[in-house]
Specification:
alpha/beta, 7-stranded mixed sheet
């Protein structure tokens, strides 16, 4: 993926100039461990970006383990420890208002990261476009299912009900999936939401679908890597992985991409963590120094029911077996990362040796 305008050498140099004099701690509050991206990818990339632009600042990770009250306590910890800035991926966007007001009262800049946060003041939001992410995957999935004989029987696993990302991914997919339902090309025989996007819950739900419908499921459509992974785990337990395809991954984690190479999963949406981390740190530095972020980074507004928040919405990319190497070219993962375990013996990995 080509560098975006706000990643130019001049923009980077300007950010480094402003960040060089900064010191203190950036607290990064992430929501859970059910999605492995947070600690495996996002936090390390934010660390790299901070070292690049503000080498005297330290990134401190706090994980809320899907507990909104725990995240409130973590905000208190960050404030009491003198946080210079907070990067917040909220557990529950609708319950974030109290935290945001506390942070504002303490005079600490806050950047909402990936997840929305409602009901309080925010300096910036940096996220991939949730609706477009669903559309990108949904369009490709619809094209693939449209090539199959009419009457494809599909089971769908949605994200956590009521969450912004869960609803937007579903809405984006539906733009392309529902016309196929209406035409009779596909038949949704089973569907359910997966609380907290938890892979164990997704696996249990997929197992229930398989028990109920047996060989009457031709494909699964998931919403991210954990819901897709749960479906694959259920299929593996019945020796069906690779026989019943799983579509609709998201985040392009190492295990997810390995499933793509193994033929268990058909696609994943890559959200390049390094780009998001780079944007987040640039927005932190802009907020702390009370200067404008690089031109073009802020490209939208987000109404969080308290204010119109300046938003940086980033592009995502659909990854299939045909372009899995793009994540390596983008620096998201290396072939050494991907070609481990059973994936090492796939055609894709062998061709890279």
């Amino acid at each position: 993926m080509e560098a975006l305008p706000w990643q130019s050498a001049a923009a980077n140099a300007n950010t480094s100039q402003r960040g060089a004099a900064l010191s203190g701690k950036i607290y990064m509050l992430v929501p859970n461990r059910t999605s492995i991206r947070w600690e495996l990818a996002d936090v390390p990339e934010v660390n790299k970006a901070a070292k690049k632009y503000a080498p005297n600042m330290q990134v401190v990770l706090l994980n809320a383990d899907n507990d909104a009250s725990k995240q409130v306590n973590q905000v208190d910890t960050a404030i009491s420890q003198g946080a210079k800035a907070i990067i917040l991926a909220s557990v529950d966007a609708t319950l974030a208002g109290g935290m945001l007001k506390k942070i504002k009262d303490a005079g600490i800049p806050v950047v909402s990261y990936e997840h929305d946060a409602y009901g309080g003041p925010l300096d910036y939001l940096v996220t991939f476009d949730a609706r477009k992410t669903g559309e990108i995957g949904g369009k490709w999935i619809a094209e693939e299912l449209g090539k199959m004989p009419k009457g494809v029987r599909v089971a769908r696993l949605y994200g956590s009900k009521g969450t912004y990302w869960g609803e937007q991914i579903k809405s984006g997919q539906d733009q392309y999936i529902l016309p196929l339902v209406q035409s009779g090309q596909i038949n949704v025989v089973a569907e359910d939401y997966v609380e907290y996007w938890a892979p164990a819950t997704a696996q249990k739900t997929a197992e229930q679908f398989l028990t109920r419908f047996g060989d009457k499921i031709d494909a699964f459509i998931a919403s991210n890597e954990s819901t897709a992974g749960g479906a694959i785990a259920a299929l593996m337990s019945r020796n069906l992985a690779g026989k019943i395809p799983v579509y609709g991954g998201q985040d392009a984690t190492v295990p997810e991409l390995q499933y793509v190479m193994l033929g268990y999963q058909k696609n994943a949406i890559a959200k390049y963590y390094a780009i998001q981390a780079d944007a987040a740190v640039k927005l932190v530095i802009a907020a702390v120094t009370k200067t404008d972020p690089p031109a073009g980074l802020v490209n939208d507004q987000f109404d969080n029911e308290f204010m119109k928040v300046p938003a940086a919405r980033l592009p995502a990319v659909n990854i299939t077996i045909d372009n899995v190497g793009d994540v390596v070219k983008a620096g998201m993962w290396t072939w050494d990362d991907l070609c481990k375990g059973p994936a090492a013996n796939t055609k894709t990995c062998k061709e890279r040796r």
